[in-house]
């Protein structure tokens, strides 16, 4: 799998990861968890590393922590989660619970989810980073309506990561956030790279265009992910799934050629004419 550098340190990050919203909010049943373990096995075997979660994702943090421990895979994972509450004390308590649930004493990335009380949490994240409890800090949002608010923080504060929505059907991030991230040296994690699950059903039944072979794509999921990764400001995409066959498909987008500017323009035009 190809990697891209995290601008603030130069460390290499694999370009395909795994989101855990809904997909990892499961009980203790062997059937569900064994399937999720296979999802992570496929991700790591392909060279992926990023596993993104949040305390608002139900039991996902617990499930990730249990699985990584059972797999002895903590060293292979770049684990990201979020703080999503009001007030300093509540934020510290929530982040400590996340560490406990993820079976970690140190996390790769802590993010302020949806910018909730970010002015309060950012100094705490800076202190945790200085203490070595987290390696990187970031901010997130999942709606285009929040792009101006994200941009204001990106301009004003030194942050390592921003997580945002971007896909072939939702390209608003190209206007402001992606150029700003490149300018400010901020790594970009893309959520909803498959349109929140809506793009694949919209393309179901349609044959892949001939140009898909030019970028070594054998599925629409790979086409959509390679479109996202072809933007030079994007560091990693985190499609969420609970199905091993979907993860096996997704990770294929992490290698091989990416669309050049001319093909990107053609993909946009084809999507507009669908």
What does this molecule look like?
- InterPro entries: AKR2_Oxidoreductase (IPR053135), NAD(P)_OxRdtase_dom_sf (IPR036812), NADP_OxRdtase_dom (IPR023210).
- With 274 residues, the chain is an alpha/beta fold.
- It has a single domain, classed as Alpha-Beta Barrel (TIM Barrel), CATH 3.20.20.100.
- The chain is 39% helix and 15% strand.
- The chain contains ten helices and ten strands.
- The strands form two sheets. The protein has an eight-stranded parallel β-sheet. A two-stranded antiparallel sheet has the order 1-2.
- Strand 6, helix 4 and strand 7 form a beta-alpha-beta unit.
- The protein starts with a strand and ends with a helix.
């Amino acid at each position: 799998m190809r990697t891209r550098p995290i601008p603030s340190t130069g460390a290499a990050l694999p370009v395909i990861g795994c989101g855990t919203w809904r997909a990892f909010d499961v009980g203790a049943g062997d059937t569900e968890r064994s399937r999720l373990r296979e999802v992570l096995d496929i991700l790591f075997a392909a060279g992926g590393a990023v596993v993104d979660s949040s305390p608002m994702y139900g039991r996902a943090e617990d499930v990730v922590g249990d699985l990584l421990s059972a797999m002895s895979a903590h060293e292979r994972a770049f684990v990201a989660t979020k703080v999503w509450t009001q007030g300093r004390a509540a934020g510290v308590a929530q982040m400590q619970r996340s560490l406990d649930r993820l079976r970690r004493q140190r996390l790769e990335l802590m993010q302020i989810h949806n910018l909730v009380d970010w002015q309060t949490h950012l100094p705490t994240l800076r202190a945790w980073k200085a203490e070595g409890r987290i390696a990187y800090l970031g901010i997130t949002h999942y709606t285009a309506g929040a792009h101006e608010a994200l941009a204001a923080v990106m301009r004003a504060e030194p942050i390592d990561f921003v997580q945002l929505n971007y896909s072939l059907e939702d390209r608003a991030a190209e206007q402001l956030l992606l150029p700003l991230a490149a300018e400010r040296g901020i790594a970009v994690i893309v959520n909803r790279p498959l349109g929140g699950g809506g793009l694949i059903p919209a393309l179901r039944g349609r044959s892949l265009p001939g140009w898909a072979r030019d970028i070594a794509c054998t599925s629409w999921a790979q086409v959509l992910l390679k479109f996202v990764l072809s933007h030079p400001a994007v560091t990693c995409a985190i499609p969420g799934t609970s199905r091993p066959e979907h993860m096996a498909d997704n990770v294929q987008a992490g290698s091989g050629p990416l669309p050049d500017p001319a093909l990107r323009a053609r993909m946009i035009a084809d999507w507009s004419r669908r």
